[in-house]
Amino acid sequence: MNKKLLIYIIGGILFTSIFGTLSHFIYEWSGRNWLAGLFTPVNESTWEHMKLLFFPMLLYGIFSWLLLRKDYPCISFSYPIGILAGTFAIPILFYSYSGILGKNYTAIDIFIFYVSVILAFAAAYILCLRNREKHSLLPALLVLVLAVCFVWFTIAPPEFGIFLPPAYDK
Predict the structure, then answer these.
(1) How confident is the model at residue 1 (pLDDT cuts 50, 70, 90)?
(2) Residues 97-149: pLDDT tens digits?
(3) CB 119 within 8 A of CB 85
(4) Torsion over CA of 65, 67, 70 and 73, rounded to 10 degrees?
(5) 104 φ, ψ to 5°?
(6) Domain tally for the chain?
(7) Is 170 a domain residue?
(8) Other residues' Cβ atoms within 10 Å of the Cβ of residue 6
(9) Is residue 140 part of a domain?
(10) Which residue, 136, 128, 134, 143, is CA-closest to 7?
(11) 44-86: per-residue pLDDT in tens?
């Protein structure tokens, strides 16, 4: 176990959990500012709620990369994998449980967010410990593509279940 990396991982879990939770309200608090809406949820759709993990972890990942890249060159690989794993865990877990139960519950939805944050950072931590050398930048490219998709689909969301608020997501 590497103490320095573990401290950054725990800090990332706390930062992403707190900032992600606050992000749920930023669009409304900003008076529905369009710029805030590109990075925070603008409605209750599952897609928009994926931003709660994605952008805070991306911000923290960039910060961590700047500080840890010399000691952990694999961070440019492991953090993007963590971001992707955590972000996509949200709809997978949400649709799994709500499909089984036939409806969704706010308390479980909130729990899923925190579980996804922990999963994301656990993946980044494990990959960083196992692979000390640099790896492919493909995961970082996929994170960039997903960031563009978040912006684009906030501006022009398709009429598809994941992009619609739960009341219409049936």
Answers:
(1) low
(2) 999 999 989 999 999 999 999 999 999 999 998 876 667 889 999 999 999 99
(3) yes
(4) -20
(5) -115, 155
(6) 1
(7) no
(8) 12
(9) yes
(10) 128
(11) 999 999 999 999 999 999 999 999 999 898 999 999 999 999 9
- Helix residue ranges, H only, the chain: 3-29, 34-39, 46-68, 75-101, 106-130, 138-155
Q: pTM for the complete prediction?
A: 0.93
Exposed (0-12), middle (13-18) or buried (19+): which is 161, by Cβ within 10 Å?
middle
Tell whether 27 is covered by a domain: yes
Pseudo-torsion of CA 72, 9, 36, 112, nearest 10°?
Answer: 130
Q: Tell me if 95 is assigned to some domain.
A: yes
Q: Which domain holds residue 57?
A: 3-164
